[in-house]
Design brief:
Number of helices: 24
Number of strands: 0
Shape: globular
Strand content: under 5%
Radius of gyration: 26 Å
Largest sheet: none
Helix content: over 70%
Distance between the termini: 35 Å
Amino acid sequence: ATMRAAADVRNRSRDSITGMHNRSSSTGDVLLDVESGGTGKTNSARGGDVFSANPTQASRVLRSIARDPSRAMTIAGAFTFVMFVLACRTSWTAGLVFLACVGSLGFAGHLARWTLAIDEGSADMRAVSDAIRDGADGFFATQYGLISRLAGVTAVVIFFVYLFRATTPEQQEAGVSAFTMAMLTTVSFVSGALCSGVSGYVGMWVSVRANVRVASSARQGAREALTVALRAGGFAALTVVGMTVLGVTILFSIFSWLFSVGSPNGMSLHEIPLMLVGYGFGASFVALFAQLGGGIYTKAADVGADLVGKVEQGIPEDDPRNPAVIADLVGDNVGDCSARGADLFESIAAEVISAMILGATMAKNAGIEDATGFIMFPLVIHAMDCIVSACGIMSISETSNRREDPYKVLKGGYNVAISLAIVGFGFACRIMLMTEKHPYAWWWFYMCGLIGIACAYTFVFIAQYYTDYKFMPVRLIAEASTTGHGTNIIAGVGVGMESTAAPVIVISMAVISAYWCGNYSGITNTAGQPIGGLFGTAVATMGMLSTAAYVLTMDVFGPIADNAGGIVEMSDQPESVRDICDELDAVGNTTKATTKGYAIGSAALASFLLFSAYMDEVSAFTGKPFNQVDIAIPEVFIGGLLGSALVYLFSAWSITAVGRSAQEVVREVRRQFAERPGIMTYSEKPDYARCVAIVAASALREMVRPGALAVLSPIAVGVIFKNIGYATGQELLGAKAVAAFLMFATVAGILMALFLNTAGGAWDNAKKYIETGAHGGKGSEAHKAAVSGDTVGDPFKDTAGPSIHVLIKMLATITLVMAPMFLD
């Protein structure tokens, strides 16, 4: 299947980029055959080539909707009304969350319309943008075609696992059969996978349309370009977060209706969250392969373009003479925008579902009759996230008469969002978490939320300190570049390792503080023991993610600005325009690094919740306490050791996949420069399509092995040690070994991701700092050394590092879904 997909994407990429639009020739453009490297005179020294796309399945659906919008609106309206009625039947809270999410999606549509109304610029700009869009559409369609086939196989496996497993005592009392649970879990998995794929497409859809508009706006000024990139990112972010919360709310409402929750003979509300674990696994499954495939694509193209173009040929970044430049610009969209959208979708889905499970468990053990507030609280917080993030986005004006640091402008919007989140979080805690038996519990949980918000803000600052060239760490790497390539690498590795300490301390303080505050809430079980600690850590995680939409906005801002810089360079715009885009690109590198630090912090807290939810699920199925994991048991310790090894092996396979793909690009780019010497004088055209096809096919081929390793490893560990436990008489050994596997993999993954993300971001901005004129500027020996460091850091920060965010959460969700396989 992988080889067929690779061949498909090679043909799709070649066909899409070599096609030609029939545009008016009044501008003086002569249409060129890019595939054959045809030559001709154009209206600019660097050409005005026009590229076209074959329509993807998604574009056909959009065109069919455009042909009959009234019918599509009728269907959407009827579906929305039915779902709203079901949500209101579940609880008034679910109905309000549903309305908030629909409103957020409507506001995202407003941002999209505003962005698309911006001028696309000159014909040369549009030509480059079309090429990027074609390549991104072609790769996305084929990549997600392969992912959908892999997800289909996994869905079948999940169905049969649940079909032949025992149900919990509560499910048996409610008359829920194994077949029903198998169907519902499979539907949840497919729903999560589908929504995650849509989230990825939304991220890419806006980025390939906003890039040319940012480039065009840069001709008016820096603030205008910044606003377009920010609002385009806001569209993607609000859509992703709104869809995540809306999807969980709809499933929760449907399951509550199916099992007559609230009626005398119906299922207890406490049992519904456990049925949603398939949704989180589906989201994680798609996000992992999307991040791997997109990361391999973007960094293989980037490394190949930089090593030959910058180092060997001495041409600028995004120069149209570089045969790999279009592949590089396409990679920004499929790697950074599309994959990050799916990543954040699964982050929020995993956190929401695990928090709902922990809230339901706590309420049940504490004898709280109406658990609706504790179960629905995560959905309320993330609905609020959409509102406060929208306010933060709109707080940034479209124009400004004074020159400002773009990062400070973005940070100002973040400060608005986080201030509103602090206020909104307090109101939500007071309304949702106050009970007659525990009237002051809400205050302690509010403290937990403030701890999470403070943790998020601290993570943003730490990531900025280690990756922004205004601070010492990046400048030390730049200075090390003056003495050669080796010292640049040594300095970058040192900075990356050092950067793990502060975040770990922050995470540790946040988890312990939130756990204590939760215990001080006064909520106890029937034996009088405090049990609010775990839910306190869940509330802290919600606090950290309470501005996730704005953080994703800043993340998508980065690749859009990067693409805009490439369009400006390739369309031969004035140097002042390029300077504006370079500044926004440097800020985008910092915001991407900041988002990755934020993501791994939230992943650490979310994984702790998922680990606790896994232990609760094992207890629910076995009817026995499962509160501790003893790593002094040899088999359990081995399970933990295997979990740590998985992180390193997964990282190694991800990085070497980029290396192998980049080698193919380097050989192809060298070949073209050798066989077509006229490329350097603009008399011959590079064969862009060849590089796009090579990178796309290689990315699809290489993403399968590390992805399969991540999916199969926890299942193999659980099944093998379950059988060992059966043979040796050790009860629940499989569940214990998987718990250790998950625990050790989470710890190792947090540290590895922090190192990879920060080192890669610091190397990248050290290069940007030298390109501002420091240490000799562009073309100097220090610059060449910095480019080498940047190429080493590329697979660190954009392939392996972000993939580990998804890995540690996917390991947790897969253990939740497959837990019955590990039980005696």
